[in-house]
Amino acid sequence: MCSISINARLLRPLMQAAYTQAKNKSRNVASAVPVLSTADQQFLLEPEQRQRCLEQLNKLPVVERPKSMAPAAVRHENSAASVLIALCLERETNEVSLLYTRRSRHLRRHSLQVSFPGGKRDDTDASFVDCALRETEEEIGLGRERVDVWGESNAIKLPRTGPIVPVIGVVKDFHVSELKLNWDEVEEAFSIPLNTLLTAAAARHTQFRSGYSSPAFVATPVRIWGITGYLTYVFLRCLLPRQMLPESLKTNLKFVRPYKLPPKTHHHAETGDLHVM
C-alpha cells in the first residue's frame, strides 16, 4: 500500500476553476432575462449618475438593534472599517458587475462568508478610501491604480460592529483572472452582473424570529446576506434611478436613523449579522 501526499494549495486553483464553472451555469440562468440593457448599464457610469449615486449613499441610514433582541457583545465600538464596492466593466461581455470575495475557510470569524474587499483601518491609512484600496490590494491583488474612485459614503453603523465606510469605484476592462488572491484571507473572488442581482429570483430576505428581516440575494453563485446583503441592497437602490429598480428592491427599510462617525477612528471593526426590515 502506498500513500500520496497532495499539497492543498496546489489544488486550490483547479478547485476554484471547477467551482467557478459551476457557478457560471447558475449565473447564466439567473440573468437569462436582462433587467438592464447595455445602454442602461453605460448610463449608470456617467458623471451625472455618479454624483446622484453618491448623494443618495450619503443619506444611508443606520440599522439599530431591535429592543426585542438580546444584547450582543459589541466589540471595538469606536473602531472603523472600510470596504470597496467595485463596479466592474467586464472585458468579455461589457456588462457591469459587482466584485465580491469569499472569506478564507481558515479564518476564525465568518469563514467562507461572502463579503466586499476591505477591512480594518489602521494608523497608516490616510483616509477610508486609502484603507479600502490597501485592503483590496492585499486581499485580491487588485492594484489601486485600477480603481477609478467615485468617493465614499457616510459611515454605516450596524448592530455588532463599529462603523463601516463604503467606498465606491469603477474597474474598467476587468477580468477575474487578473486577481492574485491572498489565500490566508480569501477563498475566492468573483463578480456578479447587475442583471443577476436585479432579477426577481435573486432579491429575497432572511427572516429572523424577532420579526426582523435582512436583505439577501439567493439566485446568485453564492448566497449574499448579512452585512454584505444589506450593503448590496442599499447600493443598488442608490445606484439605479427608481424607474430602473425592480419591484423587489423598492421596499423601504424601517427602524433606521442616521449615524455620525466619531471624530477620531483608528482601530478595527469586525463584521456582524444585520437585522433590518
Structure description:
With 277 residues, the chain is of the alpha+beta class. The protein has one domain (13-63, 74-257): Nucleoside Triphosphate Pyrophosphohydrolase (Alpha-Beta Complex), CATH 3.90.79.10. It is 26% helix and 22% strand. The chain contains 6 helices and 11 strands. The protein has helices at 8-30, 38-44, 47-57, 128-140, 194-198, 226-239; strands at residues 62-63, 81-90, 96-103, 114-115, 118-120, 148-152, 164-174, 186-193, 203-207, 213-217, 256-257. Strands 2, 3, 4, 5, 6, 7 and 8 form a 7-stranded mixed β-sheet that branches. It has a two-stranded antiparallel ribbon with strand order 1-11. β2 and β3 form a beta hairpin. Residues 1-8, 24-32, 64-77, 254-260 and 265-277 have low confidence and may be disordered.
